[in-house]
Every structure is written in C-alpha cells, then in structure tokens.
Amino acid sequence: MNIKEENKKMLLKDYIKMHELSIVQSMMKIIEKHAKNREVERLVVKIGKMSGIEPYFLKESFDFFKEGTVCANAEMEIIEVNIKIKCFECGSESEIKGFDFHCPVCGSEKTKIISGEEMHIEYIELKE
Q: Where along the chain is Zn(2+) bound (predicted)?
C-alpha cells in the first residue's frame, strides 16, 4: 500500500468518526429533553446495517461526548438491524445477507428494502 492509499483510509476513518459524533450530539439533545435532568443508566439504539452508521464509532463517540451530561454513567447498547426486502413479484419478505437484493424465494430483482436503513433510539432507562 502506498502513502496516498494510507492517507485516504485515515481521512475516511476521520470522516466516519465525525459523522457518528454529529449523530451522538443530536441524540444527546433528544435524550436530555426526555430525561428532564434525571440520570440515564442505559440507552438502547437500533441501527440498520445499511444506515451508513458504524456501530463501533457511534459507541466511541457516545463515550466521548457523554461526560458532563445526564448520560455520564450510562451504557449504550446497540442492536443491529439486518437488511430485509419485500418482493413485488411473489410478495415474500426476506432477510438478506450482504448486498444481493434479488428475492431469495423467486429470484426477482423487483424488490424494496423494508428494514435495515433505520437508526433510532429504542429506549432510555432512567435512574430512579
């Protein structure tokens, strides 16, 4: 690998981290609004495998950003959501591996992603 390729990889890694950090900043606003100054013990987040969010970097960003907030002692649990498609030909709904969007039942290309692109806070556990 030459130096230019290594630099591209480092820049991509930094971009991914910044992306996840901005997501965590938005999440913190939502959490603080709902927690109403109560301490958060646990945060559960669902992330689709096609969401463009890297779970490792999201967790790292959360751990970095939570200091001095209602989430200071909170743990983040990430639930990864697999890609699921619906076939317009046979009507089946199937979970797929990788990025082959053909219907595994009939082989049709006429499919639509119905899950795996989402990212949302599933729930927040507050300290009593």
A: 87, 90, 103, 106
Split into its structural domains, the chain has a count of: 1
| CATH number of residue 32's parent domain | 3.30.2320.80
Dist CA 109 CA 115 (whole Å): 17
Structural tokens at position 49: 């495998």
Residue 120 in marked binding region: no
Task: Using DSSP, state whether 90 is helix, strand or coil.
Answer: coil
Whether 6 and 43 have beta carbons less than 8 Å apart is answered as: no
103 is in an annotated binding site: yes
pLDDT digits (tens, 9 = 90+) for 102-111: 999 999 999 9
pLDDT tens digits, one per residue of 77-122: 999 999 999 999 999 999 998 889 999 999 999 999 999 999 999 9
Domain that holds residue 110: 3-126
| 90 is an annotated ligand-binding site residue | yes
Question: Beta partners for 46?
Answer: 79, 120
34 marked as part of a ligand binding site? no
